[in-house]
Write a structure and sequence with these properties.
Distance between the termini: 23 Å
Largest sheet: 3 strands, parallel
Strand order of the largest sheet: 1-2-3
Order of helices and strands: HHHHHEHEHEH
Strand content: 5-15%
Number of strands: 3
Length: 174
């Protein structure tokens, strides 16, 4: 279990490393908001990072066990718990897009009699307040929120001033 937790944490750190926001081609604040909110782009890049890290670690992740949904659909996840459990099957770990999703998955697993972390590991990214309020607490990878906010503000000020600049940043998870 400890080795699996280490591999899972490595996968999520790579997943966080691929969480990029490109504001180079952003013309206005509404475009920027769309880029910051886009479930598809962020989710796809996080998934890509997790898959690359898993492959590098020699861990196979079956696409048959990959369950996709949007942020707006999370409220229906519990209603679709049996389908989620079919995707999980006999997996020993679940990698979640964010802490909100992980908290819901944790609740579903518990309702199906799974013990976390004894039977299955649940790991997420964001280090949101939900991570510490769950029972058991979530294993989560933190974003460097203060640094990200500073870089974003600096980029916004440059955009307001009409300055063209390199605005693609890769952040190291905390």
């Amino acid at each position: 279990r400890k080795d699996l937790d280490t591999q899972t944490t490595m996968a999520f750190q790579a997943y966080a490393n691929n969480d990029l926001i490109d504001v180079d081609e952003t013309d206005n604040v509404n475009d920027l908001k769309k880029k910051l909110k886009s479930d598809d782009r962020q989710g796809t890049m996080r998934y890509q990072g997790a898959m690359e890290a898993a492959a590098e670690a020699g861990v196979q992740i079956s696409k048959e066990n990959t369950f996709w949904f949007t942020t707006e659909d999370i409220k229906y996840l519990e209603d679709d718990a049996s389908r989620l459990m079919r995707y999980i099957g006999d997996c020993t770990a679940v990698l979640c897009y964010n802490d909100q999703t992980a908290a819901t998955v944790l609740k579903i697993l518990t309702s199906y009699g799974k013990k976390v972390p004894e039977d299955i590991s649940v790991v997420s990214i964001d280090d949101a307040s939900q991570a510490t309020t769950c029972t058991p607490q979530l294993t989560t990878v933190a974003h460097p929120k203060k640094i990200m906010g500073t870089v974003l503000a600096q980029s916004l000020f440059r955009m307001i001033d009409g300055e063209k600049h390199e605005a693609t940043y890769k952040f190291t998870p905390e």
